[in-house]
Write a structure and sequence with these properties.
Chain lengths: 103, 474
């Protein structure tokens, strides 16, 4: 890891934080929960880390624990991602009243 | 990293940004959610392609695909099956999983280095890796235990061997320095782990203390503050993903993680503002339930459904004030039926007063009433509806307590300054509630004892259907 790479990453980190602060301004109370749940699904982005990690771990068969951990991480992250987007979608459909039923 | 991989991640990051932006507006919110999901799909496909096309390719398809499919199936089923009342718990649970996934990736990376000392990075890379892994573990494990506890608190308890055990709310003031101490000890352990990266004691120490920290942070928090905490934990799980991004040097993890971290924090502040609380008070001053409940000295005679039905006869305007009690007893359909009967029989104007924090999470009431097919136009937010109470014949309060408590106007006690629904200004108030007991804030409610108030003691669903029958028979 070169210092340039690290500084590049820190730059990304800071700029993304600024964007995040600016993105959310006035949100009606009705949308607080769906917004929270949608953002929560996005935080399941660690699925990427889990995928890369598990591939590397399976390559070095010597480190079994790391492989198992990575597999569990893939599963948990995927529950977070798919479940999060699905549940947000269901909530929004109910609030907007476009689709009836469910539950 | 290959160029096309970077471009894939860039597209995915842009989709996340647009998605979050659109999620904040009522009309565009469903599209925003889809954009977010698309961003995630792009990121996953890019990653899998990169794994397959560069280096040795995907090593173990069965395990990777297995994890992906298993996780998707579980997540999808949980999202489809959950009752609308269980929504807050589910969001908390998913959030915990997200935090745990980030922390597990960090742990898996560290395990790899420890298992094979030759791969251990040196110098700057080592410092960065250990700091990021430590912070990711701190935030990730804290999010997991905190979210799980939050889930059980939202549920109200847990069933162990057929026995219902209530989730405690407990937070003496001496717990606050303990939280700070636990936090500092994690920081010290991270520092030590840089000195001795192969010593696993520090790693397990960080995990243990972080788990404990999540529990002591959430334990003292109760009632209306719960959604704020879930939102804060959501923000933390984003930060955990960003730290994990630093360990594996992945841009999309850093961008998406910090986006969620920052926007989640802003959302947390917005929620706090809606209920007139400060975040610092939410975290460090325990809210109600801590033994400061007032003793009830007054009594009130309950009414029955027939009396209430007589009074409702010919009412011009009825405002329904739903609260958590409606969610618990699942009586939203009976409420809608009541509205239908009133509209048909007397041509009554029906409106619903929605307090921003009614229920256990913001928007909880909207979702429930939408499920019962209540027209969106009849759901009125607190600030708009409050002016209408003086010319409303009947305010029907269903399982709401603190959000209607006039004590909030007095400027004293736990509820001080919280905006409330002015149900007490209606000509008659009907309250459906199990008993006169205090709400989460532990403050006795003057509204119950007013002369114009009629109490219907009992379960929301039973009372509503009783009332519906009585009104039909007039």
């Amino acid at each position: 890891m070169t210092p340039e790479f690290l500084i590049g990453n820190i730059t990304l980190f800071m700029l993304a934080i600024f964007i995040g602060f600016e993105l959310i301004t006035k949100v009606p109370a009705t949308l607080h929960t769906p917004l929270m749940s949608g953002a929560n699904a996005i935080s399941g982005i660690s699925i990427i880390g889990a995928l890369i990690g598990s591939n590397v771990a399976f390559k070095n068969e010597s480190t079994e624990i790391s492989g198992i951990l990575a597999f569990v991480a893939v599963t948990l992250a995927m529950i977070n991602v798919v479940g999060g987007f699905a549940v947000t979608n269901r909530m929004l459909n109910m609030i907007a009243g476009k689709k009836r039923g469910g539950a | 990293m290959e160029d096309w991989v970077s471009i894939g991640y860039l597209i995915s990051a842009a989709l996340f940004i647009f998605g979050l932006k659109k999620l904040g507006h009522p009309r565009t919110a469903p599209f925003g959610n889809q954009l977010g999901a698309m961003g995630m799909l792009v990121a996953v496909i890019t990653t899998i392609l990169e794994m397959q096309l560069t280096g040795d390719g995907v090593i173990d398809w069965t395990l990777i695909a297995g994890g992906l499919i298993l996780g998707s199936a579980i997540g999808y089923l949980m999202a489809k099956r959950v009752q609308m009342t269980g929504m807050p718990e589910l969001v908390a649970l998913f959030n915990g999983f997200g935090g745990a996934a980030s922390a597990l990736v960090a742990l898996s990376e560290i395990q790899k280095y420890i298992g094979d000392a030759d791969t251990l990075p040196e110098g700057l890379a080592l410092t960065v890796t250990m700091i990021a892994a430590g912070l990711s573990a701190l935030v990730g494990w804290m999010t997991l235990t905190g979210s799980l506890l939050a889930m059980y608190k939202l549920k109200g308890g847990v069933e162990i061997f057929g026995k219902w055990i209530k989730t405690p709310t407990w937070g003496p003031t001496w717990l606050n320095p303990v939280k700070v101490l636990l936090f500092l000890s994690v920081i010290v352990m991270i520092y030590m782990s840089i000195e001795e990266p192969t010593n696993t004691t520090y790693m397990w120490g960080i995990i243990g203390v972080s788990c404990l920290l999540g529990i002591v942070l959430v334990l003292p928090i109760g009632g209306a503050d719960m959604p704020v905490v879930v939102s804060l934990l959501n923000s933390l799980s984003g930060i955990a993903a960003a730290f994990t991004g630093f360990i594996i040097g992945n841009s999309v993890l850093i961008i998406a993680g910090s986006l969620v971290g920052a926007s989640g924090l802003i959302l947390t502040f917005i929620m706090c503002k809606a209920m007139n609380r400060k975040l610092i008070d939410v975290l460090f001053k325990s809210f109600g339930g801590s033994g400061e409940k007032q003793d009830l000295t007054r009594t009130k005679v309950g009414s029955d459904a027939d009396e209430v039905a007589m009074m409702l006869d010919g009412a011009q305007k009825v405002i329904i004030v739903p609260g958590y009690g409606m969610a618990v007893s699942q009586c939203q359909h009976a409420v809608k039926e009541f509205a239908n009967i009133m509209e048909e029989k007397f041509g009554t104007e029906i409106k619903y007063a929605i307090h921003p924090v009614a229920g256990r999470m913001p928007g909880h009431m909207n979702v429930l009433l939408a499920e019962a097919n209540v027209p969106y136009e009849q759901l009125i937010e607190m600030d708009e509806i409050n002016g209408e109470f003086p010319d409303c014949d009947v305010a029907l309060v269903i399982g709401a307590n603190d959000t209607t408590n006039p004590a909030a106007r007095s400027g004293e006690g736990p509820l001080a300054g919280m905006p409330i629904i002015d149900a007490d200004q209606a000509r008659t108030v009907v309250i459906i509630k199990r008993s006169l007991s205090v709400g989460y804030a532990g403050v006795d409610n003057d509204l119950f004892y007013m002369d114009k108030t009629m109490m219907l003691f009992g379960d929301g669903k039973a009372m509503m259907s009783g009332l519906n029958t009585a009104v039909k028979e007039i």
